[in-house]
Amino acid sequence: MKTQVQPVLEKRQAALRAEMASQGLDTLLLFGYENIRYISGFSGHAAYLVISAQDAFLISDYRYAERAKAESVGFEVICRDRDNESLGHCINRFIQAAGTRSNIRVGFEAAHMDVATWHAIAAELASKFTDEQLEPVTGMVEAMRMVKDEWEVAQIRQAAAIADQALADTLPFFKAGVSERDLALELEYRMQKLGSEGMSFDTILLFAQRSSMPHGSPSAQQLKSGDFITLDFGAVVNGYRSDMTRSYIYGEASDKQIAIYNTVAEAQQAAMDTVKAGVPAIEALKASNRILQASAFAEFAGEGLGHGVGLFLHEQPFIKPGCDYVLREGNIITIEPGIYIPGFGGVRLEEDILVTTSGYELLTHAPKPMVLEA
To answer: Where is the Peptidase M24 domain (predicted)?
Structure first.
């Protein structure tokens, strides 16, 4: 795996160094788990990166040192003695590229460090740098992660395929009397048997009126004829996640249920029809909203439309009111309009799609008949 991904990681590191130079940063401290994995290849925790134009250090401890050496590319692994050296002191030792020049600038990931820990680190850095030389940085690596390379696309495509197959294998278990919790466990078991590293997130699987909760947790409620079913789930491959939602009606469907389902399906397709590299992402939201707001269920429509997906479940770009992002080839985004009526039920349909120069490629292919036979 390390040999396979090495050229990918080296390209990312070069791009990060170029971005650091463009922002006038001599050294960058990375604290975010997903960003560390994206840049170094290390998949564990308790890690911190110090990167400059010349040097790259991955600081960890005895629990992860061997694993970090096996997985990381382009980084010298430092095993910190946690009992005898503070994190700040260790980081300070390895900001060597910066030296002691008075004009040096050290960037740090402000969004991935709690205030107390950063104050402790900054106190150690004060021997070399003034507060003005320590620059909070937000979104630098996240912006790189928005456009997926071929290797990343392959991991998400595989994660989506696992989820597709797991749902197809689980659908025969949707019978009257089965509980939300039992079906969620069955689905998760099948994903892991098919090779998922775990769950992309806590599985959402809800029946009847409970399906009006966009992010409810599975309960002991049992399935009965006429129920809405909503399930939102995903698999994980090499840290990369899929994210898919299916809604069904079990047994006999009412006219109102059919109308809700068809409205959401039409809104989803209208949104996807706008997707193409070079098109503002807000156009997909507008297309979806035209359908939802013209329906009898306008007041119950969800506000946003989707988000990027990758090493983290909810990545940039976020397709919601105020979004100014222009879609690029290589973005992987979700399209997930929904209608949620408290006390009655809800429908959400979600796909993972890869943005291309001519439109999009659908990555999720799980069955989505409107009605499941009782």
So the answer is: 155-356
